[in-house]
Amino acid sequence: MKTLLRVLHYLSPHRSLVVGTFLFAGLATAFELIPPWLIKVIIDDVIQAGQTQLLAWVFLGLCAAYVLREPLRVDADSVEQRAGAASRP
Fold first, then answer.
1. Contact 32, 72 (CB under 8 A)
2. C-beta of residue 89 within 8 angstroms of C-beta of residue 10
3. In this predicted model, what pLDDT tens digit does every residue of 29-49 receive, in sequence order?
4. Do 20 and 83 meet the contact criterion of CB atoms below 8 Å apart?
5. Any idea what the Cα angle at residue 85 is, between residues 84 and 89, rounded to 5°?
6. Residue 62 burial (CB count, 10 A)
7. Which of 38, 42, 78, 80 has the smallest number of CB atoms closer than 10 Å to its CB?
8. Helices and strands in the chain: count of H runs, count of E runs
9. Whole-number pLDDT of residue 26
10. In the chain, where are the structural domains located?
11. How far is it, in rounded angstroms, from Cα 29 to Cα 22?
12. How far is 86 from 10, CA to CA, in rounded Å?
């Protein structure tokens, strides 16, 4: 517990970077979970239910999730590195 309090003390002047790091980490995690969910939708709701007219829309959503995931991951890494560099004495 002492170590955690000491780390929080060092990071307190950089609250915005720490909050940004956690925000981007949460968004990156959410974007990691979207593709498997969309694949489930394709299998359960499109193919098995025979609603092939939805296939194009769900596939476009899947492509968009993969495209948007990378820049978000890069931004998360960038904010994390800035927070780490700013917290060094």
1. no
2. yes
3. 888 899 999 999 999 988 888
4. yes
5. 100
6. 18
7. 78
8. 3, 0
9. 85
10. 14-86
11. 10
12. 9
